[in-house]
Amino acid sequence: MAGLNAADLELCATAPLFVAVSRPDLALLLEQAQAVSYNETGLLFSQGDAADRFFVVLEGRVNLFALTETGDQSVIEVFDPIATFAEAAIFSSGKFPLNCEVVAGSRLVHVPAGPFLRRLGENRKLAFHLLSGLSRWQKRMIHEITELKSKSPGQRLASFLLALAKGEEGTAQIRLPITKAVLASRIGIAPESLSRALGRLKAVGVETQGRDVVLTDLDALRRLVREGGE
User: Fold this and answer.
1) Segment 174-206, tens digit of pLDDT
2) What percentage of the chain reaches a pLDDT higher than 90?
3) How far apart are CA 174 and CA 27, in angstroms?
4) Residue 9 belongs to what H/E stretch?
5) DSSP 48-94
6) Cβ(71)–Cβ(61) below 8 Å
């Protein structure tokens, strides 16, 4: 466990929550924050735990999940670099509303709630800057929900694959960064629907082998997202 260096601070500054905060103010807000590396996958916190901190993902990934009545995990959100998470809990109930799993190889910044909130109390303008960042995040979430409601399972899956192949033209080889079960939960479909959607995407050049995916016709995949017809 270590404090933040200049590079860590620059990464944190790119998170939506902090984009409107100046570097000197951000350094004060995060002066007692610490960077923590995780060599193994494990539980970061459980639903109902005291929300005495929030987090910034610098490397790797975390999964926020709820437990179903049968004890299975239902993934609510996946956070990749560079994103903050669990900050709402320190402003509201003071307890984490969900469970969180951190994936092996991740590196997170832990931001203690007490010092962070004290700095906000000393400079009320900072709160408005943070609200600006949260507003941007809310707009992104609303956009994602709209996407889920308006697109078919195949289109949602195609959008996810295209995001992984960003910058590629023609063809691309990618590897799913999450399991297929987590992917299904993330795009809002049942696991069996994911299998069917993958099968249908073969018609537009999508071939899968485990978590390895070959996209042989990116233009066709983009047309599917825009126009449907799968």
Assistant:
1) 988 888 888 888 788 888 889 899 999 999 999
2) 57
3) 37
4) helix 6-13
5) TSB--EEEEEEES-EEEEEE-TTS-EEEEEEE-SSEEESHHHHHTTS
6) no
Cα 100-104-108 angle, rounded to 5 deg: 60
Task: Enter the tokens of residue 90.
Answer: 């320190």
**Strand order, beta sheet including 212-215:** 172-175, 212-215, 206-209
| Cα 201 to Cα 198: distance, rounded to the nearest angstrom | 5
- Identify the band that residue 25 occupies on the pLDDT scale cut at 50, 70 and 90: very high
3-state SS track over 14-61: CCHHHCCCCHHHHHHHCCCCEEEEECCCEEEECCCCECCEEEEEEECC
pTM here is 0.75
Query: What confidence tens digit (pLDDT) does each residue in 131-187 have?
Result: 887 777 777 777 777 766 788 889 989 988 998 888 889 999 998 888 888 888 878
Radius of gyration of the chain (CA): 19
Quick check: 122 and 1 in contact, CB under 8 A? no
